[in-house]
Every structure is written in structure tokens, then in C-alpha cells.
Amino acid sequence: MKRVIALSIMAMMAGSAQAVESKTTTYVCEFPSERSQNLLPIRTGSPMNLDFKLDATTKKAYMHGNVSTNEVQVIQNWYGISFVEVTRSGNVTVTSITKEGAAVHSRNFLHPGGMLPSQWYGTCAMH
Questions:
Q1: What are phi and psi of 87, to 5 degrees?
Q2: Rounded to an integer, what distance in angstroms lies between the CA atom of residue 117 and that of residue 93?
Q3: What values do phi and psi take at 37, rounded to 5?
Q4: How do residues 32-56 score in pLDDT, each as one tens digit?
Q5: Residues 6+ apart with CB under 8 A from 105
Q6: pTM of the predicted model, to two decimals?
Q7: How far apart are alpha carbons 41 and 118 in whole angstroms?
Q8: Rounded CA gap, 53 and 126, in Å?
């Protein structure tokens, strides 16, 4: 009986050690230009910076911007990765990153006055 308990404790400890060793990938993104619906530049100058942290063990990802950190959904394919955020108010943002590091961040906000879409173009580096 003592051996069964000892083996159970060792198994639990191995599981917790594995969780501590989880692999986290970080995407550090810089978006220097924003475009309007007709693709004309809206804003240049101060870039928008976003970081995405992806935990390979838990399969959870988080987007960190200049205001807050939010959990995001992850969608991967052969060509890159996308992160989808649904805000508390139901608005949607999508950031897509190619394997080469090209990136686009799209915001689609709906509000009483209509729609406020925007796209930011830039690059992301994986760390």
C-alpha cells in the first residue's frame, strides 16, 4: 500500500514539474501604419505595439496591448497563425502573422453611430 501511495505522489509531482516546464512562445508585434476602409493611410508615426503569448502546454494565448491583457483564440495553419479577440462589448479584433513575420491587425467595432473598421500593417518577431 505504501508503494502505491509513493508511486501516486511521484506521478503527481512529475505532472506538476511538467507544468512548470511549459513552453511559451511570444510574438512581439509592431504596427507602424493604420489604413482606412479605402486603404488610405490614417495614421503614421507612433506605432501600435502588441505582444501575444502562447502557452504550448495549456493551449491558451493572451494579447497584451497598451491598455490591457486579454485571452485570445488561436487559429494556426501551414502559413502562419491568427489570434482572435472578442471584446466584452462584442467587438472583434483579428491579428494574422505569416511564418515570415508580416502581420495585419484588424479591428471591427460596431457602435450606435455605425461601424469603425481599421487595419494596422506591420511585422511580428517570434521569441
A1: -75, 170
A2: 10
A3: -55, -35
A4: 988 876 666 676 668 999 999 999 8
A5: 29, 31, 48, 50, 93, 94, 95, 119, 120, 122
A6: 0.77
A7: 10
A8: 10
